Structures are given as structure tokens and as C-alpha cells.
Amino acid sequence: MPSIFRTRVQRAAFHRDHHRQSLLDIYRISSSTSDSRAQTIDDTPADLILTALTPSTPTSSSPSPHSSRLYSSSTEVLLGITGKDFTIVAASKAAMRGATILKASDDKTRALNSHSLMAFSGEAGDTIQFAEYIQANIQLYSMRNAMDLSPSATANFVRGELARALRSRKPYTVNLLLGGYDQITDKPSLYWIDYLASLAPLPYAAHGYAQYYCLSILDKHHHPDITFEQGMKILRMCTDELKRRLPVDFKGVLVKVITKDGIREEEYADDHSVACP
Amino acid sequence: MGSPFSINGGACVAMVGKDCVAIACDLRLGMQALTVSNNFPKIFPYGDVYLGLTGLATDVSTVSDLFRYKVNMYRLREERPISPQTMANLVSSTLYERRFGPYFVSPVVAGINHTTGKPFICGFDSIGCIDFAKDFIVSGTASDQLFGTCEGLWEPDLAPEDLFETVSQALLNAVDRDALSGWGAHVYIIEKDKVTKRLLKGRQD
């Protein structure tokens, strides 16, 4: 791949001195307490060094399943549902910074090509930087080859870039959902990728706390060949449950649909109130 | 978070029989206690040689992609398929290249050497130390349980059908005692001129 889109080099130079010291401290602390193998920081993700080599903390002290830097992204909602001939991707509209909501109409998605859409959550700067880097490269591929990369090829490319960054000095803290429609096989697709670059093709998926509320609903109601209307009905059940149980207001969701005709935004009313038990 | 080896969960086992080998894995992908996918196979076929990878899911994908590239390049260069023994040494040296920043995986290799006709299995730690075994190899979060079930069920010179039953029971009963593994299994029975892949449903809880 060409280097014209790789603006990370400049950032790398800027951050080098700041991070080198703190990571070396981490290594020094961890290596003295490690139980077995010595490791250096060179190729290991920073938070993996921590988890791998520092003495394990009691599980009761870490309520979040994510690393501590991810807690704000846990309240961001990403949902994906596939059906007979469509993929629905929903992303919360609140742009949050700590306890403050900066914007209530945020679009956490980017169209990669005519039939694949990426939704993202995670650390503020990383998300858009990574998403637009991917978007640019996928679009470049379409221009050079006069054909689009398939959703599965796109997913594996994205995973590769995220995995490469994971073992760099400053990994991207970004969770992704990749919704697409494969025009060759005529099948909808959905890929779940977390910030460690774990890739899973799934019929329905969620990121953050939405997983705990929505996956059980989807387990019960989802079927591989549901119609679009049924899909929207299940999405409504999910967002209602999130409204009911999430402690923060995520300002509703932006819904995008990928079909054989391409990507479109779907009207989604969220002005009704939800009864709470 | 605990160790990177147990964030996503998963289990893999390989066994030797009479003129055959078996390799099997579970299908779970999780984040701690939350199951994200129940269709995440951990065995990757490279021609005649089979590689099982448990551990951190991102590294399972990265390492399997890397070996697909390396084994394809080997076959093109040498104009012959890679043998299990050569594969074992390739895995070992590739992992040791990352000695001070390892891939968090515990690989298992299984196959039949087509020159000698002998079955071959081996396992590795994450930095490439090879564990040659005459009987069975276990890896993953259910490895303790697998040691127990394999030790109890395995016997020498099992025929392919008996080996399938043994490896399946060993895996299924081990992952049912492990919260991070399970949700179905893939079982490969490799004979000289035939490979049988079976999908086991397993408990869905």
C-alpha cells in the first residue's frame, strides 16, 4: 500500500520521547514481578505487557471487562443486525468527552465503498483518524482496480491494519463493526472487530455495554432470514432496552442500512419514552 | 484482565492413533465471561499439515495468516508440500523470532509424514519450544481438564473411528468443565489417503 495516507509517521515522531520513558517504566516494573519469561516493549502492545506481567489485580476491583482507557467507549452504542437481504448498522448519536455530551447528532460511521460501512467507537482521536485512514485506502483500491473490495476482504484488511498498529508504539484504541453486502455471493455480512484486532464474522453484533443488554435480546429474536421490517423491530427492542437500562443518555441512534442497492440512512424516531420498571 | 492467553478462551487437542492422527478444537470466542462468537475455529489446514492455535484471538488470526503465507511460499519454492516435521520447525523458529514480544498463542501441529507414512503431532509454548509427544498434545484454557480426559481415555494404536470417539469425548468433557471454552467443536481425523472433518454441536451454555 502507498504511503500517501500514512500521516501517523508525524505523530509517531511527536510522541516518541513522551511515551518511551513511561513504557520503559512499565517494563521495569513488570519484569521484576514477572513469573517467567522476560519481555521487552518492542513488539508487545502496552496494555498486554501490563496484563501479562504485572501481578494480577483482584477481579472485584475491575468492574469493566475492558482496559481502563476504554470506559468512555463502553457507553457508546454500536449495533449490527443482518437479515435475508440487508445489514443494519446503528450507532449512538452522542459525542461524549468524560461526563459531558459535546454533540447529540454525531455520525460514528464511514462508508468505505458503495457496499460496505464501518461503525466505530473508542478513544476520541483514534477513531476518526483510523476510520478515515481505512476509508481512504479502500477508496484508493476501488479507484486503482476499478472494482470494490468485497466485505470479507475489507474486514481482513482492516483487521490487518489494526493488528499491525497493536504491536506498534501507540496502538489505536478502536472498536469496529463492519457492515456490508457482498454483490458476488448476494449475501449480507457483518464483521465484529475489537481494539485488539480480534475479528469475528457474526449474524448480529454489538460493542461496549450494549453487548450486555442487546446480545441476549438478539439471541432470542434473531433468525438468519428475517425481513428488513423484522430487523428494524428487533433493533427497536434493543434501543428501548438500552434507553431503559443504560445510566447515561446516548441521544438515540443513527441507523444505516446496506442492501444490494448500496448504503442508505434510515429514519429512526427516538422521541417516545420508554417505561421503566 | 487476566493473562492474554485467557482473554478470549479456547481449547485444542491432538492425538496419535494407528496410522492416523486426530486434531480437534472448540468454537468459542469470548471477551472474558462474555461469549462474542460461537463459530471461531482454531484449526487451520495447510495442505497435509494441520495447525491448531489457542490463545489471544488477534494473534490466532495473525499467526494463522502468517503461516498460510509461509507454507504457500515453501510449496512454491520447493515444489512439494510441507511435511509435519518441517512445519514444526517452521513454527518454532517463527515464534522464537518474537522471543521478546511473543505472539500469545499455544500452537499444536498434527499430520502424517507422507515420506515415512508415520503420524506426527507436537505442541509449542508461545516462544517456540517444541513438545514432541507420542500420545497426545493439549492446549488452551481447558488444557488442565484436557490432560485429565486424555490421560484417562487415550490408549495406543486406536483405529480412526475409535480415535474420533476418544478425541471427541476428551475435548467435549474437558470444555464442559471450562467456562471459557466450548460452544461446539471441529474434529479432524487424518489418515494416509483421507481426511474427515466433523462438526460437533456440544453444549450451548
TrEMBL record, chain A:
Instruction: Please classify the protein's predominant subcellular localization into one broad category.
Output: cytoplasm
> What GO CC terms are in its UniProt record?
cytoplasm; nucleus; proteasome core complex, beta-subunit complex
Q: Which InterPro entries match?
A: Ntn_hydrolases_N (IPR029055), Proteasome_beta2 (IPR035206), Proteasome_bsu_CS (IPR016050), Proteasome_sua/b (IPR001353), Proteasome_suB-type (IPR023333)
Q: Which UniProt keywords apply?
A: Cytoplasm, Hydrolase, Nucleus, Proteasome
Q: Which Pfam families match?
A: Proteasome
| Gene Ontology terms, MF aspect | hydrolase activity
Q: Which PROSITE patterns match?
A: PROTEASOME_BETA_1 (PS00854), PROTEASOME_BETA_2 (PS51476)
Q: Does the keyword Transmembrane helix apply?
A: no
Q: Where in the cell is it found?
A: Cytoplasm; Nucleus
Q: Example GO biological process term? A: proteasomal protein catabolic process
**How does this protein assemble?**
The 26S proteasome consists of a 20S proteasome core and two 19S regulatory subunits. The 20S proteasome core is composed of 28 subunits that are arranged in four stacked rings, resulting in a barrel-shaped structure. The two end rings are each formed by seven alpha subunits, and the two central rings are each formed by seven beta subunits. The catalytic chamber with the active sites is on the inside of the barrel. Component of the proteasome complex.
Q: Which family does it belong to?
A: Belongs to the peptidase T1B family.
Protein purpose: Component of the proteasome, a multicatalytic proteinase complex which is characterized by its ability to cleave peptides with Arg, Phe, Tyr, Leu, and Glu adjacent to the leaving group at neutral or slightly basic pH. The proteasome has an ATP-dependent proteolytic activity.
Identify this protein by name: Proteasome subunit beta
UniProtKB/TrEMBL annotation, chain B:
Q: Does the keyword NAD apply?
A: no
Entry's localization field = Cytoplasm; Nucleus
Q: Which CDD domains match?
A: proteasome_beta_type_3
Q: What is its main location?
A: cytoplasm
Tell whether Cytoplasm is among the UniProt keywords: yes
Q: Which UniProt keywords apply?
A: Cytoplasm, Nucleus, Proteasome
This molecule's function is given as: Component of the proteasome, a multicatalytic proteinase complex which is characterized by its ability to cleave peptides with Arg, Phe, Tyr, Leu, and Glu adjacent to the leaving group at neutral or slightly basic pH. The proteasome has an ATP-dependent proteolytic activity.
Give the family from UniProt.
Belongs to the peptidase T1B family.
What protein name applies here?
Proteasome subunit beta
Q: Which organism is it from?
A: Mytilinidion resinicola
